[in-house]
Give the backbone structure.
Amino acid sequence: MRPAAVAAVAAGTLAAAALLVLAAGASPADAFVALLRGALGSSAALGETLARSTGLVLTALGAVVAFRAGVLNIGLEGQFLAGAAAAAAAGPLFPDAPLAARAAVLLAAPLAGALQAAPAAWLAERRQVPAVLSTILLNLVAAAGVTWLVRGPLRDPSGDYPQSRALAEAALLPPLAAGSRATAAVLLALLLAAAAAFVLARTPIGLALRAVGEAPRAARAAGLPDVRLRVGAFLSSGALAGLAGGLEVLALTGRLYDPFTAGVGYTGIAAALLGGMSTIGGAASALLFAALGAGSSALQRDAGVPSSLASIVPALAVLALLLARGERRER
């Protein structure tokens, strides 16, 4: 989109947010200051924003990678849960070997995410089942699987709450700074975003994926292995979401429980859309969403505005962006 259109979308979103704050009986200026303070106002607030951004960056990246090959992967939520479940199963197997536990999580989580995406890839290529439909249904399967695991095979026998055994304390990623929840996981997520941006924009495989996504028949006629490229992008997307779930366990929660997530995969898709389905834009939008989520409690505490407004604002931005693109295509 042109900069003028982006500016118009941003201005419209801010105006709508201001109207919502006024409707709640608060000052838009006070609400903005409270939100900014809650997201960035201290080392703890900044750490919370960065900790929340890890999963969002990786799931947004997964959405972009799949979309580049013409695949709409709506199953990032289920793939995130599959990665978290794999991490909760593999990590406690090495209670006295922290490095082995971390390695097991970092291997098992992306593998589980890719396996979660595999049925949808097979159905799309072999039975022409739309990926949108199959991935949404697989999200339900993954959520039910988490419920079964924490009440069955992975349940911690020493606790009353349905949750898995905890990873050893030494296996968890340490915070980057005292009093902060941010760990090296966010650095890994940003590094992967930069690497994906380079691969998709500067390498032959990135050009091939774009060709398959934008003109599959022409790509096939040119001799490109379109099926393998689509399936590879699909599985890579699932692996990124699975890694996000594994890092959630390894860096923050230390175990699996039910319900485990508040829509990280779905929010990652929204971040990718807001970022124009580009890797850098998706990562930047994910950081914005994380900041809104981290500042939502301060929004309610200091400005008297319901914390749900922090979720409404990005939704308005995505809808406005899609509306602007639709009008542009009609013209």
Q: What stands out?
A: The chain is about 75% helix and 0% strand. The first helix runs from residue 3 to 23.
